Structures are given as C-alpha cells and as structure tokens.
Amino acid sequence: AHAGSSPPDSARRPPRPPLISNMVAAEQCCLPISEISSYVQRWTIRARVTVKSTLRTFTRGNNPGKVFHVHLLDVYGGEIRASFFNEAADKHFDLLQLGKCYTLSRGNVKIADTRFNPCSHRYELVFDKMAQIEEVDDDEQIQAVKLSVMDLRSVQSRQLPFSADICGIITSVAPHISFTSKEGKELVKREITVADDTATSLSVTLWGERAKQEDKLFEGNPVVGLKGVMVKEWNGGRSGSLSESGALVFSPKIADAQRVQRWWADGGKEQSITALSVAFGGGAGAG
C-alpha cells in the first residue's frame, strides 16, 4: 500500500474467533448440575449415567406403576439422581445405558429424599412422558463415577448403620452363589474382602449382575471403587452390602486408587490387616 493510504480491510478486522466444537457449544448451552434448583424453570443438562437401577414395579392403592433411577454426573463434577416413572420408564429404560452421555431436559425438580438418595445434591429430578433425552458423543472429561471415599479405619468407628464409598484392593473373593430368599425370590450374591492403606479390611456383599461378573475380574488383587456400600453390624463385626443404587468400578481413575495401589505394591500385601468383618468360620482375616 502507498504511504498515507488506508490499510486493507483484512488488516483492520479483528481476528475471527476459532470455530467452537460441537461439544463445547453443547456445554455452553447446558446448566451445570450443581446449579439445578426449584428456582430454575427451564434447563438442559449434559451428563454421564454412572449408576442405573433395575426396572421395578410397584402398586400404589389399586394403581400399578413402574420406576427406575439413574445417577447423572457432569463435566464439573456435579451429580444428581433422576427417577423415571411409568411411561417415561418404558420409553427411556433401554435408551439410558450405563456409562454413556446424554443431554436431558424437561424434568421436574424436587427436594432430594436422603433416605433413598446417596447423592449429595439438595435436589433430585423426576422425568415423566414429557422428558427430552438424546444420546451425545462421549466426553472423556466426565468421570466414570464420582466417589467420596471414606477410609476403612473411619468405617470402623462410625455409628451404624451408614452408607459409604470405599476404595481398596480386593484381597479375597468367594464364588458367586444362588439361593432363594424367605420371600421366595431367586437371588445371587458374592462376597469380596477389600483392604486399604489404613491396613483395615471389610467384607462386602455384591448382588445380582454385579455378583455374576466373571471370576477373573476379581482375581489378582485389583483395585476397586465401591459407591454406596451400606455398612451394618453382622455377627459381632461390621459388614458391607453394595446397594442397588451403588456402583462397582475396577481401577477407577482417582487419586485414592493410585494411593492404595502403591501401598499394596510397597509392602501392604505383607502387612497385618485388621479385619472389620467376622468370617463365616468364626475367625477374622483378610484372606
């Protein structure tokens, strides 16, 4: 350009912002789960299904119904429980797959019932036939499960009963067994013993499909994260039972898992372990 002439248009224009990927654009239009409340009327959340219950039938008065529950976790670490009743249960039970990511909107917000809801959110969601749910691309930034880990020494001293998330090494595993309950239900269970770097162990019962997973998954002292373990008194000791609304994750990508793995490798396996649970034979041991 000649001296004194205006610079070309391209030089005057500010640089164009980079194109936003679909994933980021989707995030920008979504509300963080932590901000869901009864004061927010219209919202869309984007989350991973980290827990999914079975489809349960019930009778209220003379009216039959059905329901299932999921836990939803977003990229910011917010977690909330959602329930699907009747038509919504029929429509979305097969669609919502454990571990996959979705956008969800048009749900109702209510105060969480902490008797049945292990999530720490003050609210929970209820979806009916108006629910809008779409599967989206997987987001690696969203964890597989959110654990608020309590070490097993703390499990030893807390007042019973209570629910806890634990993370440790599987030190022993029993085969799964099938039996019939007093109510005539066919049940499957498996006992595992989990120890952590407080040199303390707890026996935990797994149920149903979790118990029926292949034996080799439990062998070789894998590190495991357990969400929603109900701890109760049993036979003079303490015993855990993984609730239906809980989660079982092998090799979770969390600092607690790395720490107990290091402890085990650096001599933990040789340590004397304090067993909180009394074995069936009357003796205590971590196996």
TrEMBL record:
SUPFAM superfamilies: Nucleic acid-binding proteins
Residue span, OB domain: 43-130
Keywords, comma-separated and alphabetical: DNA-binding, Metal-binding, Zinc, Zinc-finger
Domain Replication protein A OB: 155-249
Endpoints of the signal sequence: none
Assigned protein family: Belongs to the replication factor A protein 1 family.
Protein name listed in UniProt: Replication protein A subunit
